[in-house]
Input
Amino acid sequence: MVESTAFHFATALLPQGWHSDVRVSVADGTISAVHIGVAPEPSDERIAIGLPAMGNLHSHAFQRAMAGLTGLRGPGADSFWTWREWMYRFVAKLTPDDVEAIAALAYVEMVEAGYGRVGEFHYLHHDIGGHAFVDPAEMAVRIGAASQTAGIGLTLLPVFYAQGGFGGVPAGEGQTRFLTNPDSYTRLIEASRRAMAPLTGAIVGIAPHSLRAVTSDALAAVLPLADAHPIHIHIAEQVREVEDCVAWSGQRPVEWLFDHAPVDASWCLVHATHMTAEESARLAASGAVAGLCPVTEADLGDGLFPAVDYRKAGGAWGAGTDSNVAIDLADELRLLEYGQRLHHRGRNLLAEVDGSVGRTLFVEALAGGTRALGAEAGLVVDLPADWITLDADHPALVGRTGDAILDSFIFAAGRRLIDGVWLGGRRLVTGGVHHHRDVVTARYIAVMQRLLTA
Ligand code: ZN
Output
């Protein structure tokens, strides 16, 4: 079947706001024209409601396979740290084929949820037992292949992981598959860039894992490898991490980073949950993106990001699915607002006066995602033809126009409203289901049956 090359949206969210009768022309997967207030041509594909596809700025794809398996209460106090031990045991068993199969399903689910690009914070570099692959980018190649299967854009963020704790504590047994030094990391980045070059729109940034996992000298050594591409780092996710950082350096993690690294708009500080008002103001002023992952942060008991104050200071932020315990854009945005409501005991907190919360969350997450992933997004000429369509006949949308559509999507009905997703001008989702879901699911089930009985 020949893909349509022109689409007519009854209503669509453009950078300048909602518009009716929007005609979008597409050539070679890119938007070639946008006309507003025009009637459809007979050959146009007709769409009721269109939204730009969203960037998912933080994912560890393989962790999708652990979703629902870490809910058994242990003998002590369960926490992020006990969850991490479970994750280390799981990751120790994964082959490249396993990782590709799991990532393919995670990415199919991301596309179904309305994500058009993923920032894969990729730290599983070595073979079982920590042995090096012949090709240092072996696992990166598998991530790239999974993204191709799902049709999702990829910003690959190979992780630099060199130590087990602040101040050069040696890495532990569970971390051997992640480790590089500045020299081997340089080879990994070079090999990853070669491997991703044939993938349309793929970007390779860098990701020092966290201040726990890199020394200050090694951090300085690897930063030039970014070469104007995104730099992502986990930071201040856990109170114990903040305490350990203070014990090591006398400074809190975000404070330390700003005093020791040239943090600017090319950076994404993932989580940044535990900040003083001063740290939050520095982050906001820097132009760096706060990479918020509300569902995972709730699952792991991390804490609440100071979103109200951070937004007031003009801080940029975007959303990520992180552990992929659930893959749902509407869930992430809803939980971000709801966390603030529960904390501040108020409503409609993440919006300006007379502004819709849903619209504000969606638009700000879109902007932060594009900055953090190094790729523009939106229904704009010369950008990839990536968009989501909503089911205008769903009861949750009866009588809704404009921003009420986004408030209903995020707070009332969620992903059930997504009926179509187009990426690069190709329709990948119909009726909420990815066209490759069956094949990808069958492969995933076979992998999981072996992993869970081994
Ligand atoms: Zn993470």
